[in-house]
Amino acid sequence: MSKEMNGRKLLLICMPIASLFFLTACAQTTQVYRSPKGYDFNKGEKLFLPDALHELSGIAFPVESSKHIFANEDENGLVYYFAPGEHQYQQIKFAKKGDYEGIAISNGYIVVLESKGTVYSFPYSDILQREATNVKVGKDLIPKAEYESLAASQSDSLLYIICKKCAVDKSSSKVTGYVLGLSKEGDFFKKGEFKIDEKQIDLISSLKGKQFRPSALTKNKRTNEWYILSSINKMLVVANEKWEVVGAFPLDPSLFNQPEAIAFDDSGSLYIGNEGGDKANKATLLKFKLN
């Protein structure tokens, strides 16, 4: 990194948002962090989320537009959706209380991942209802373990899930991922698996002797690259279509205090969501526009 870059200040730009739930705040640090191509993690917009999403665990945008953000938290079987500028959020119940993590929207369905590996789908058309109908549940499709990362590939209606902590990876330098198909009826079926090599990450940015623990996943449809977030490692990893690591970017812990959610909107802006953690803090979305 050049001396000029070392001397720059990290500035999180404040932009006004007319909403009861979205407020803005500024943060500064003297360190500059590297960013994936097309984005600048040294410039962004910070949005505070409603208290209902204090335990934020996943975000997603519909394919058609980015008017609404869909989100879930890890305690209740609810999906929330809202738009910047609105004074209210809507919610829909799809399951009883549990430990819910990633969320994705694909093939006309909203899909939610439970931490033990169970997946739920319900029709996107149900969002105007208080409770989802025709909920499909996919059990025992992947090994029981700890999962937080779920993403959809719109081109083929496939779902991708990455282990956070799986027995199969205990003595390995690789992290296992699983591919599920999603039918037009909302049913799930096994499709395959893949591996992410921690050694490839270490060559770019040191994991400091820790295992890689993914907390969220999304696909950049402009580049066909996978963006893999880790709250524990405070890192964003970028992989190509073959799951080869092509980038690894440490995250500023003062901004990314507990990064648990990631998604792109239809304009290419990257959103990273932080769980509130300590009750004194609020869950946040950090928005980085495409350069």
Which SSEs are present, and which pair or pack?
Layout: H1 3-7, E1 10-11, E2 28-29, E3 45-48, E4 56-60, E5 69-73, E6 78-82, E7 90-93, E8 100-106, E9 109-114, E10 119-123, E11 136-138, E12 146-153, E13 158-165, E14 174-182, E15 188-197, H2 198-204, E16 216-220, E17 225-230, E18 235-239, E19 245-250, E20 259-264, E21 270-274, E22 284-288
Number of strands: 22
Q: Taking all residues together, what is the mean pLDDT?
A: 88
Specify the helix fraction band.
Answer: under 10%
Q: Poorly predicted ranges (pLDDT <50, ≥5 residues)?
A: 1-28
Class from helix and strand fractions: mainly beta
The end-to-end span amounts to 20 Å
Q: Major β-sheet, in short?
A: 4 strands, antiparallel
- Count the helices. How many? 2
Global shape: globular
Task: Give the strand content.
Answer: 35-45%
Q: What topology, given as strand order, has the largest sheet?
A: 3-22-21-20
Q: What's the alpha carbon Rg, rounded to whole Å?
A: 18 Å
The secondary-structure element order is: HEEEEEEEEEEEEEEEHEEEEEEE
Give a quick rundown of the structure.
The chain is mainly β and 291 residues long. It has 2 helices and 22 strands.
Features:
291 residues, mainly beta, four-stranded antiparallel sheet, disordered N terminus, signal
Question: Can you put this structure into words, describing what you see?
Answer:
- Helix content is 4%, strand content 42%.
- It is mainly beta.
- Strand 6 and strand 7 form a beta hairpin.
